[in-house]
Amino acid sequence: MRPRRRVPAGERGAAARRGARMARRRAGAWPTAVLLLAAALAGCAPPVPVKPPPPPPTLAELMRRPAERALVEGIRHYDEGQYVQAEAHLRRALATGLADGRDRASAHKLLAFITCTSDRLDDCAAQFAAAQAADPQFQLSRSESGHPVWGPVYRRTLKP
């Protein structure tokens, strides 16, 4: 505790008035401080929990979907050089309704490669345009876009 200052007798009335004035000021500041503290704490309330997104489907679940199964088969046939079978599976995957835009873009890209190499350049350009429509972020890798057959069609179709 602080030692009290002794107030001379002539100043006691003024000191008392000053003390009363200070007490009134402190009393008026108290509700304001409480309101400010409450407002500040209201902004710090914990956020309402957001429901996490569902986990991605497993490969087994994807293979039960006809479109995704056809896409996987189309990719397998493409990788094995069986382009007629690959084209049939990829077209079936698109017709059956692939759910993800990136999957649709992949199917269209492989169809573009197949149609370009079989000299169906109009269909090739249409497949590149469809890939772009399915996934706006779609673009070929540097090595793919430099291919002598489909590279020029790709660049001509998807000019920036």
Q: Quote the beta fraction.
A: under 5%
Instruction: Tally the helices.
Output: 8
Class of secondary structure makeup: mainly alpha
Mean pLDDT equals 83
End-to-end distance, in Å? 78 Å
Low-confidence segments, given as residue ranges, are none
Shape: elongated
Overview of the molecule:
This protein is an all-alpha fold and 160 residues long. The protein folds into two domains: 10-43; 59-157, Serine Threonine Protein Phosphatase 5, Tetratricopeptide repeat (Alpha Horseshoe). It has helices at residues 12-43, 59-63, 66-79, 83-96, 101-117, 121-134, 142-145, 150-157. α4 (83-96) packs antiparallel against α5. The relative contact order is 0.07.
Brief sketch in words of this structure:
This protein is mostly helical. The chain has helices at 12-43, 59-63, 66-79, 83-96, 101-117, 121-134, 142-145, 150-157.
Keywords:
160 residues; mainly alpha; Serine Threonine Protein Phosphatase 5, Tetratricopeptide repeat; 8 helices
Please write out the topology:
Blueprint: H1 12-43, H2 59-63, H3 66-79, H4 83-96, H5 101-117, H6 121-134, H7 142-145, H8 150-157
